[in-house]
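Ticket #4471: complex job returned nothing on first submit. Input attached below:
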Amino acid sequence: MQELIKVAVDAMGGDHAPMEIVKGAVEAAGSCEELKVFLVGKEKEVNAELKKYPYDPSRIEVVAASEVIEMAEPPVQAIRSKKDSSIVVAMKMVKNGEADAFVGAGSTGAVLVGGQLIVGRIKGVERPPLAPLIPTEKGASLLIDCGANVDARPSHLVQFAKMGSIYMEHVMGVKKPRVAIVNIGAEEEKGNALVKETFPLLKECKDIHFIGSIEARDIPSGYADVIVCEAFAGNIILKLYEGVGATLISMVKKGMMTSLSSKLGALLVKPALKKTLKRFDTSQYGGAPLLGLKGLVVKTHGSSKSTEVCNSILQCVTFTKQHINEKISAGIGAK
Amino acid sequence: MQELIKVAVDAMGGDHAPMEIVKGAVEAAGSCEELKVFLVGKEKEVNAELKKYPYDPSRIEVVAASEVIEMAEPPVQAIRSKKDSSIVVAMKMVKNGEADAFVGAGSTGAVLVGGQLIVGRIKGVERPPLAPLIPTEKGASLLIDCGANVDARPSHLVQFAKMGSIYMEHVMGVKKPRVAIVNIGAEEEKGNALVKETFPLLKECKDIHFIGSIEARDIPSGYADVIVCEAFAGNIILKLYEGVGATLISMVKKGMMTSLSSKLGALLVKPALKKTLKRFDTSQYGGAPLLGLKGLVVKTHGSSKSTEVCNSILQCVTFTKQHINEKISAGIGAK
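Support reply: We reran it on our side without changes. The output follows.
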């Protein structure tokens, strides 16, 4: 029998924990036979949820952790002081090789800090970027970095480009992924100091397929597969994506309710529209990997329901089977 | 008779010049009696367009300029060498007091450089920001700076906040405009170096109503009236706004064409939907003012049609009548 891929899940993190987390874990284990899930958290609460479902006890295991890191806690202090918190216990399993990956929906800050302090960086990786998939007209693009390293330097961005390429090629199956840097104009001389310094470095980089600058306007159309940016810009892109989408959809819905004929029309377009808009829903891709760590750390939305949790756990299987970290380790060393 | 408000328009700038520019100027002059428009450009071409319409010759005048600055030209060099270009000639009219305002749809770079080099900054203004209105669920917010000053310093952002407040209060009629700084979290300790330095300065600033950080997600809902950011971030926000909007609308349209019943429904919802989406169209607000100059400089979209040109020209009337520049001059000096 081949060895199972082991994922340690923070059962206490997120707005709907432990209920939706446990449900998502059961769904994931049920849909992939190569998977073993550890649900880390307050035993009583987790077991109370778990017993609602039929599951294979050889594939889902509860691991006790008595503390929970709250959203508002300063991350560094929380990771250091709450040794028996679900995040710390689950991440230690990754560090010790008892698990291949960590999935959590709790405090982003705590997941980022824990990833660096507990799991640790791959040798040569300067800064681990948070890299969610964002929906586009053509499918999905990887936004790297979307919030882990504000005020990053050019050398960091070059590593982001390499790691993002490896991810898109081997996890998402995109051949020769197109890499672009977020800029305020298409010309090479445009940009702020960081972009102007990074652009020639990306151009010289032989192991990526660099296609130049990308203006924010062209991101939703799917013009590039790997979208490289500093975390402050990346966070704006990710959140505005959600914000404009939500506002427009709410306005469309309200707009369709303004007259009798539009209300009738709304009933008729609803199924088709729902399908279309689902394609533009960020939650379908599961969580965002924090790349460049010795083990996989995946951060899912705080508001994650079971589907997103399940997708985040399943993502770890491809990542681990494709030996992404070995590829990153080799790629970061290359020119 | 009261004195007319004089607007010098670059008749040669933009994708649809001179046709749509001339048409927009005729519309503006026709809808506002206090206005005099100078159409600056190649006399023959401009007159050929102008004679298509009935207009009051005391209120529209053609001013000759033999050269045109092209989109691809390096801005500083173009402004310096093409002395008889439509942008330079029109801006000189503002500098010399022959016009109160400039409106142009041509090269953004040339308009920004010309504004600073020819029209000149108001004493005390460190950097003039480009500040478009962006649509929100509640109306519109001012995005300041959206592209004029990359790598700005904290003191610049504080001035942007002051100028933006004055604009929203006196041009848009918003009482006590809410000012927020774009950030990657709501807490005061979040952000990059620039935001962390600027935040306390905005908090101390007595002549604005500062409400703290705004995450990009909350911009479309209309959470703040004045959205302060560095130009690189602002440009991303502006362009992603357009990009996500365009992609979603195109997907909604396509989605509605997928089945017979949805096609029928589409016919019924179309009028209501059109009205809703028009509210989210950036062009309805005319161009973006470049604030802090001795005279008003307005940059409109390169793709502007007559309506946007007309709105941009009309915007100059309120700006001038409300003595915005005198208020900026007084405000920048204040603590």
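Chain A has a mean pLDDT of 92. Closing as resolved unless it happens again.
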